[in-house]
Design a protein that fits this description.
The structure holds 2 protein chains of 2 kinds. Chain A is α/β, with parallel strands linked by helices. Chain A has a domain of 68 residues. Helices cover 36% and strands 26% of the residues of chain A. In chain A, strand 9 and strand 10 form a beta hairpin. Chain B is mainly α. Chain B has a single domain, classed as MetI-like fold (Orthogonal Bundle). Classes of the chains: A alpha/beta, B mainly alpha.
Chain lengths: 248, 234
Amino acid sequence: MVIDRNNILLELKKINKRFGDLHVLNDVSMAVKQGEILVIIGPSGSGKTTLLRCINALVIIDSGEIIVENKIINPKSRDIHNLRENFGFIFQSFNLFFHLTVLENIMLAQRIVKKRNVKEAKDKSFFLLQKVGLKDKANSYPSQLSGGQQQRIAIARAMAMDPKLLLMDEITSALDPELVSEVMDVVIELAKEGMTMIIVTHEMGFAKNLANRIIFMDKGRIIEQGNPKKIFNNPEQKRTQDFLNKIL
Amino acid sequence: MQLDTVIYWYDWLFILKGAGITLFLSLNAMGFGSMLGLIIGVMRTSKLSILNYFSWIYTSLIRGTPLLIQLFLVYYGLPVFFGINISAYVTALVGLAVYSSAFLAEIVKSGLQAVDKGQKDAAKALGMTYLQEFRYVVLPQALKVILPPAFGFFIQLIKDSSLVAIIGFIELTRSGRMVIARTYKPFTIYFGIMFIYFIICYVLSIISRKYFETNRINKHTNLKTLKMTTNKVI
């Protein structure tokens, strides 16, 4: 795989993570280019979610390097909260702040982390709410919203911080099937605008329609990667084929 | 010489003044106890074993021993160890504040642990520092779980504060005993004192029920009042 050194947003080199005796991530290396949409698939326990969480240091790696825009990141550094601003993370369980309204959810980090003034933060928040189609819910509380609506707000909240890269951890897995498409539409819109994304998912629609590249992981290792056509039609590895047979 | 054993109206006034002092003392003890309890409570959830262990010993000792003994320790112990003579008021305040802090620390700890881990993940992912995460996300949500039992403890504290009568501090119970000493009418006085304690605690429990009861109507107004730390920012 030819790598264009100038365009690489994120690179992971030989990432290792153990939880007790369990070797969850085993010498994982990969790179993501600016504007690329990378989809990670694989069975439960393959380490996909852990890998995502290692990128923005929600999980601290045991060994290996995380390189963002050609700068090595130390996950244990005291300034890690500064580095996390580069990444937007969307969780499977949304994790909206329950005690705040939708508007306050989107404004909070803008105010206290980005130090934007109230007007700037509000304008940005309403702009994003309009984009995800939930402007009328600005003063509602998360508990008053459906799962699909909450997830769209979560995306807006992450986008408000102008991240360089969006990390999405099975964002539709906790949703009722009929609510999945409204979230997918938002992601597709973001993709069209050139947002770089790493998406962990079981939703093969994401993989087939959105991905520039698919990575298949199993038992803590990357087994295979390539464009969707190759992975779905001509996988090289047997394990990939076995997994796809079960899913499709 | 005829002893005057009549209970005059100004005796009841004296006793009511004691009630005021009881409330004042309890509020102060609760205030200091809350601040200390918050710190100890956070220590109880710390990953650093030194902090965790120390705070565990603190809360276990204080919750596991009688308040009366603790008050004696403060009253007789402080002058001996630190060579300072302190008034009964300071003794009562220190004793009750430390006592409160241990119970409140455990309440704070459960409140903090009740906050969903995902909330903290989201705060971190958005780039918040630990302090920002605590102040704007964790603490407001933890308060929802902390305030009802903390208020309940306050009501208990008002009753427990009657023990400070024994170290000579003049509050509700002691003022009653002083009147009894002159009038030899323990039953009437004690009954009156009990009634006063009951009224105070009953009114507080009504307030507690009204305010902390969660139903669909006041659920969101409760959320609004818990956002005190975020209101100035957003």
